[in-house]
Amino acid sequence: MPSPDFLALVVTLKMATVTTVILLLIGTPLAWYLAKMTSRFKVIIEAIVALPLVLPPTVLGFYLLIAFSPQHLPGQIWQQVTGQQLAFSFSAIVIGSVLYSLPFVVQPLQKAFEQLGDSLLEAGAMLGAGPFDRFFTIVLPLTKASFITAASLGFAHTVGEFGVILMIGGNIPGETRVLSITLFDHVEAFDYAKAHILAISLLIGSMILLACVYLLNLPRNKTDKLS
Amino acid sequence: MQLSKLSSLIIFCSLLYMSASFASQNNNPLRIAVAANFTPVLKALLVEFHQKTNIETQIISGATGALFLQIKHGAPFDILISADSVRPKRLEQQGLIVNDSRKTYALGQLALFSMEHKTQLTDLEKPSKHFAIANPDIAPYGKAAKQTLQHLGLWHQYKKNLITGINVNQTFAQIRSRAVSSGIIANSQLVINKLAGVVIPTSYHQPIEQQLVIIKNQGNYDFAKQLSDYLLSPKVQQKIVNFGYANHELTESIAKPLTQQGISHAKP
Hints:
The complex is a heterodimer of chains A (227) and B (268). With 227 residues, chain A is an all-alpha fold. Chain A contains eleven helices and no strands. In chain A, helix 3 (57-68) packs parallel to helix 9 and helix 10 (179-188) packs antiparallel against helix 11. Chain A is globular. Chain B has eleven helices and ten strands. In chain B, strands 2-1-3-10-4 form a five-stranded mixed beta sheet, with helices on both faces. In chain B, strands 7-6-8-5-9 form a five-stranded mixed beta sheet, with helices on both faces. In chain B, helix 2 (39-53) links the parallel strand 1 and strand 2 (57-62). Chains A and B meet through helix 1, helix 3, helix 7 and helix 10 of A and helix 1, strand 2, helix 3 and helix 7 of B.
């Protein structure tokens, strides 16, 4: 039997990894679409994407809890398709995290795509490269730093998530109990020694991750300016 | 294309891992949703319970209100050990619990507490600048604290000085960290943390009936019933009182003569 804190670490890393992968898959086309969009509805979609930045997590969590519950349609559909209840499952906290961390992935990518310009892509098209070919041989290498930034921010923000998961996760060990909630439990139980260990590890971990992001961005920005 | 293949592989693997972890949890342990202020007591009691029955347990500690909301929306908890009787009653009304499983397992006891000076009940008559109680609208210990101040005719003096915590644990933390000089908390918190305060007579407020309920259709009914029986057994009830809860017997002995009279009247 692994220690409860270790179990929470495993769940947290699993959640953040799955969330980041899904976010990159959804966020990349969405950011591309937003970068190329000229319609006036663009501002509305941008506002929706940015909403989790300003919305209290408990608001998002509360509505997700209602939506995921077996009494309501999204929860019912999920139950019929998968045979399992959505609320209080690992899948629920992943969906919650995807929504909650969406702006952290979409915004850096959108900015990168906007700065890219059309000339290189047009040149690629002229030389007969298909859309996927153009994306993987032109766009991806040029925006690699932004992808790393987006993935790291999405990952780090998901690790630090609390309010949404507290609402929809149900604090179940090995399934939905993540580090931030374990930390809260330790504080509630006046177990400050354990709380300090978790809090300091989270602090140092986030610090290192963010420092790495900025480190990776540093040389690339310089070469960008030179070229 | 390679990248998307890779990511779909990652998703597939994680789905596999998820379903594997699901399968391994088919033999579910007893999931106990417990009000935060009873958690330390429960943890202490579960040691003996596990030795006796060999039942594996998982504790989900939280505010009663949040646990209630989650149970209403299908949280997989087997038993709710609440800090009040309102939420268990409401679950019963909504048909979410096993019939007749709603039982009072403890009576809350309030205490006046300060880290800065030795307290006595008369301190209440001179309100300090800040005074901490749990939120009377949502927390049972806060409600009882408000009733106590009302009973003493001091509520209006205190109203403006109150710092209210979301639950009595937060209130305790505020006083213990000396952020607030004094306040009303649960006596059990003082007992568990070996601190001294003044017990507030239970006659100053309505009884803080802490009830438990067994949630319907969770497939762990036998284990939940065993835990309920264990907590309600006289020996464990005495242990709970020793942890700083009010004595059942005392309140029952006040109530008993009345009911006995009622019975003797009914049978001429």
